[in-house]
Please model this.
Amino acid sequence: MIRALIIDDERLARQEIKGLLKNFPEIEIVGESGVVDEALDMIDKLSPDLLFLDIQMPGKTGFELLEELDGRAPEVIFVTAYDEFAMKAFEVNALDYLMKPVEEDRLANALEKIKKRLNSRKEPTEVASDGKLEINDQVFLKDGEKCWFVELEKVRLFESEGNYVRVYFDDQRPLILKSLNALTDRLSEKYFFRASRKHILNLRWINKVETWFNGGLLVILKDGTKIEVSRRQSVKLKEMMAL
Amino acid sequence: MEASRNYYKAQILGWSVYIMISTAVFILSGTELNLSVFGGIYLVFALGLIVTHLYRMAIIQLGWLDFDLFKIAPRVLAACILLAIGFHWIYLNILNLAFGWNKVFLWNDQNLFAWAMLFFIWNLIYFAYIFFQRYRKEEIKNLKLEAARNEYELRRLRDQMNPHFIFNAMNTIRALIDEDPNKAKGAVTQLSNVLRSSLQTGKHELIPLERELQIVKDYLDIERMRYEERLIVEFDIAPETLSSSIPPLMLQTIVENCIKHGIAKLPKGGTIVIRSLSNSDYTEIEVLNSGQYVANSDSDSTLGLENTRNRLDLSFGKRAWMTIGNQDDETVKTFIHIPKTTTHDTSIDH
Model:
């Protein structure tokens, strides 16, 4: 069962998607919303697997909604009538989208893709009780016109740059408007370690740890990046590594 | 630049051909090739180059290049004769000086005729090139003009069609087919009306306000189905204004912008009020919508405003104007002042 949430400011547009989804019994509609802020609450409470998301909505756009997500990002199928700007973004970033009025075949195709992705995603070994982001969760990142859905597993490093944080994954390094402190609170401590005031690193990406000046440590990641660990955090890291 | 380079090439080449032909003629006719014969040939070559080059400067100075064929032909004929006479006179004098001859200028000298023919051929080639270039330039200009016109037409059509509106309307209608089939039927008719009007009325310079209001009503009815309780529409139209002439789809464009920049951005929606007032010699139309006007918020709508102003200007000149601004913290007011004109209604459908 895929639990879906429909977000569109027009009631009839939501109605239309609900009507189309009647032919897909594996989709359970857990809710609908026409207001972005309300939708954010619903995503928090219901943690749906899939969003049907309109782009142009009063107040905030669909992209802005995704940027404001606190928890993991669900799978998303964008639904829009005609918006050259958004269409370009979909194409450039290989996002799933449907055009209104929605063709049933295309909907079926999009759902098929989503199903595959949901199945291949490894289930968390244990359910996160604290609601923090686990290693298998995906997040939505947006930097200018570019956007990504990234599994945290792939993220090696978060680096603070003023009011922004640079996120390192694959060969990308987008800049997002977030504070490192806020991220520390959201990321599971089992996988992510606050190395210093500047860095959060993914423990699974550590290749080597060397001793550094003044009892500090130097972590070398699998891609060769060297990160200094502050003295206080070094003690903590040693404890963690020593079990 | 390229034309000028071609000119020099042609000059050298042309006069070289003259040397070759003359030499060949002398050889074939068995004339003894002495210094004076070669001197004569090369003198023609050098003199020809100089004279025709000066002649070309004169052509350019006199502006012959812009003349049409009928103006050029007599001038060229006259020029050929004059050039031949002048050329012959200089030619004789130089030869006399060089070889100690004593030849006199004779009007029946057959050389005079030969020079005239030579200059005529020169002119033929020169002006053929000029006319060919001119034709090509014209051709390119026409093609460019046509491309610009096509692009404008395409843009006009696309702007008129407003794809965002159409596809949203289609989607709304799809949903209504299940929910309220009768309403769906009405919506199809209204959408057809809007599409037909935008295709047809664009051709007219002016249409009566009554007809424009019908388009606006159909359009707003469809948008009301989409936005439901979030869009409230009020009309307050003075009956005397119904026959006033306005540029087609002008009010429609304004109302579309009210939706796009006003209602669509407000989570709770808002109201659009369309009001018309009449006076003995002008009509005033006022459109109020919820929202706030931000100048230059995006270039697209600035362009739209500019376009509306241009159309008013084209139809009425300084006697019509349009203003847009914030009436208060939550209302935008668009105001149009149009002189009353008695136009026959050419736009009624039969």
Chain B has two domains: 2-156, 162-339. The interface with chain A takes residues 163-164, 166-168, 170-172, 174-176, 178-179, 225-228, 264-267, 269 of chain B (CB under 8 Å). The beta strands of chain B are 207-208, 231-237, 245-246, 270-278, 282-290, 321-328, 331-339. The two ends of chain B are 59 Å apart (CA to CA).
